[in-house]
Description:
This protein is α/β, with parallel strands linked by helices and 177 residues long. The chain is built from eight helices and seven strands; from the N terminus they run E-H-E-H-E-H-H-E-E-H-H-H-E-H-E.
Amino acid sequence: xxxxxxxxxxxxxxxxxxxxxxxxxxxxxxxxxxxxxxxxxxxxxxxxxxxxxxxxxxxxxxxxxxxxxxxxxxxxxxxxxxxxxxxxxxxxxxxxxxxxxxxxxxxxxxxxxxxxxxxxxxxxxxxxxxxxxxxxxxxxxxxxxxxxxxxxxxxxxxxxxxxxxxxxxxxxxxxxx
Length: 177
């Protein structure tokens, strides 16, 4: 009761109960460009996903990285993808009382999570461009290199068309021409 909760996005359960609380504000969906201005005002960032849903068990929540880029302390439900960062970058719990205790620790600045600099550094190391490079490397490692050899003699126009077609239409992730 001594804290305000601002929920941005779709509320998928207990909306009627939440609306009755004077310290809970349901703002609904917001354009992405507005999110940083809200995030600046937050003391603690929450990821309250229903951890019993199968899809959530395979979710790597983007909010985690966005919150860290703003150097926020995070409390989340036990999402498997966040387990490696438990008690370092995020507190995880599916127990209501423990979840609230973690929030209070963060509000009182008594949490033992990483400092602001380390949070931001981690977020930068996991931005989309870095994650793409890592993902691309893993995909290439999973597929053997294939060499495409184009034989041509004295047919510049068709050779260029052939090469363009290979580049534009080849879905295989690890090839050379």
